[in-house]
Design a protein that fits this description.
Layout lengths: L1 H8 L8 H14 L4 E4 L2 E7 L1 H9 L4 H10 L17 H11 L3 E3 H6 L10 H14 L3 H15 L3 H7 L1 H9 L3 E9 L1 E8 L1 H11 L1 E3 L2 H4 L4 H18 L2 E2 L4 H10 L1 H6 L6 E3 L2 H4 L2 H8 L37 E2 L5 E2 L3 E2 H11 L4 H11 L5 H15 L2 E4 L11 E4 L5 E6 L9 H17 L10 E5 L6 H15 L3 E5 H12 L6 H5 L3 E3 L5
Parallel strand pairs: 6-8, 14-15, 15-16, 16-17
Antiparallel strand pairs: 1-2, 3-5, 4-5, 7-9, 10-11, 12-13, 13-14
Helix pairs in contact: 5-11, 13-14, 13-17, 18-19, 18-23, 19-23, 20-23, 21-22
Length: 522
Amino acid sequence: MGEEALRRSTREDRSRDQLYNQSKMYSELYRMPGWFRSTPDARLKFSFTLLGAHVAAAKRDAKGLFIQCLLGTVYPNPVLEVKGNFKSRPFACMLRTLEQMDGLLCRDELIVGPQSLQNDRDAKAFEEMIKTLKGIRGHRNLLEKAIANVSATREIAEETMGNYTRFPIAALEWTGWTRKERLSVYGSSTVFLRLTDYGREEIKKLQLSADVRAIDIAKESPDVHAAFCRLAFYEMMSRSDFDTSVVTSEMTKDRATCEKLLQRMNVRGSTLLFSPFQELDEASLRRAFGAAIISESKDVTIARVPAAPRVAEVVAPERASGRIVLRHVAAAIPVDGKEPVTKVLAAALNAAKNVPRLATELIAQKFATTNKGDFYPLVASLFRVIGLDCEATRPGINYQRWDAIIKDPIKSIPIEIKSPGEEPFISVKGVRQAMENKIVLLARKQFATTADTTSLVVGFNPPNDRSEVFDLIKDIKKAFGITIGVIDFRSLVMMSLASLQGSRPDVTQIQTLFGIVDVANS
């Protein structure tokens, strides 16, 4: 299908080629966080960086690293061409602006404010920007006039400037730093970003960090420059849940090498906010990380992510010419962009004085009104705590009928999920959809499975009318030979808590589950 789509998309005039232009757009998004960069021989051929290799190593748990890449983005840099003479750490600047603007920013304020600030290190310029935004707020005519002035000054159409906010706004919300809210600040209802508690915590961390940029270390000797780059990179990996214990000795040596630099910049003891692969040229990266850090891809236009192991051998720069890929140690994806699910489970156990049933009820109360955007990834996380390779399906992926999938070399399990926001009790509707999921999986063979492997339904509360649901499960088994298993949220949480305490359930029991499991009330 991919080859056919590529054939249909291809045009003699490449500017009219849909897939080609979509790929160019994606290349900009992947270059910005430093995951890959253009090869010396062609701008539209790319090679993956060591930072990109770590994204691949983290697999579905790369959110923490992506957040660090957002904070590590700095303009100008040799990776991206940015219109205008901007000197900015954009996402950190947006967070600072949100804090000063009572935790609120709308799209047009974002354009007039942080996206138009020439130098975010100029305290006076930043204060003037905040003063301007506060003077505009509540007056639509002033906001429209300010947008028109920015458009004329930068020679960019207003619609195009709006398009430039799509990625930043999506990133600010996806990280959990903000949430969307409609307010009538400008007369009519307008979408605003509201700063969350998690966003405020990130701002506090930024205030304790050392904002170091390439220009600050440009005149250092090659040895000191390389040592600082490695030290900052390893700290960034540590903040992203990678295990850096195996390079402790190298970090100690590098810290000693750049001790005078750290003293001169007055950043001793501070977290180093500096991302080498987003700010430096290839020659500097090679000096710091070795000759094999950038893989040469001579014949790939939009390169595929290279195979990267979940746990890879870690070697020091002076001991090898190969890549240094650290082991990722995160147990599960963040919940609501705030904290790993293991921390949620542990905190509930602690609050319930290690009584699993009470801890389960605390967690159930926490997520009792959750909608599918948060509930589906949460369910996948809980299955992963149990020890199953579960992945929630991204919204809009129509060819994957199920809401999540437990992947297995032989017995993969499709999962139909019902969030409490969709329906509070598991019903026959979910059972019918679970049957359809299994039929589609058997027919399309996207993941390996067997006819007798179960198809799961996971919902918040057990079925209200158990006889009706169980009768349908038995009828489906009798008529089609399809096994359906039903798990409510509290039961799933109980199994996850047991796993956290060292008692994991038998995987084969889940793979062959028939009927309604109710661990919470057993």
